[in-house]
Amino acid sequence: MTKVAVVTGGTRGIGYAISKRLKEDGYKVVGLYGGNAEAAQKCEGEIGIKTYQCDVSNADQCREVLAKIEDEVGPVDVLVNNAGITRDGAFHKMEDDQWEAVIKTNLDSAYNMTRPVIDGMRNRSFGRIINISSINGQKGQFGQTNYSAAKAGLIGFTRALAMETARKGITVNAIAPGYIATDMVAAMDEKVLDSIVAQIPVGRLGTPEEVAHAVSFLADERSGFITGATISQNGGQYIAA
Ligand code: NDP
Q1: For residue 167, how far is its CA from the centre of ligand 1 (angstroms)?
Q2: What residue intervals traverse the membrane (predicted)?
Q3: Residue numbers of the domain that contains 94
Q4: Is 192 inside a domain boundary?
């Protein structure tokens, strides 16, 4: 049976590339988006996937949309927790809403999305959960206490859930991309970006397609012995243990 893959933030940026790649790999792909319906519609037309609106920071919306997907498309075999935002600022100037939005969207979302699908995966003895973390969750980043905390939290979540689900045919892994050429990075100051590229041994930004390639690899049935891992994908910028 054709496997179903759900990608949060699956209609733009890295998520778009992941949806496209998984579609090419033969999955029935569902892309979730937050508010950008225009991008979602464009994505449906371009890569031929279904899309649903869902605010991943809202547990009720996640439960509802996943029930709808299971009903309309089928049980979820692969879940890619990719949606994320930044609200940067020095910690001594950070406001409550900056902290909360980033933790809710980047970290609570993993609970909100994974909790409703885990029983089904356990019952069917198969599942692939792939969490998109970040280099900045591994090493920290000036101005990103909120984002670094959320992305490091995702790595802890990945490891603990991997232990709990290993006997059930479910793997849980994280990918920690470095700087990837998407809107999120295009929004950065040009000088800051130049200084970042200068610190990347490979000498360039990564591409969304490269991240999608790692997702495809982890989602594959043959990757069943890899669980609890974090794949660093950063052009050598930070070589973690
Ligand atoms: P983009 O800003 O290009 O896209 C973000 C995606 O997340 C959009 O599809 C957006 O939906 C969705 N999203 C945001 N908030 C919500 C929400 N509350 N509910 C549902 N969906 C939401 O980001 P990138 O593609 O650059 O990043 C993707 C992931 O990769 C993020 O988790 C990011 O932290 C991580 N990452 C990115 C790096 C980079 O260099 N770009 C580096 C390391 C990690 P909509 O289209 O509706 O707005």
Answers
A1: 31
A2: none
A3: 4-180+209-233
A4: no
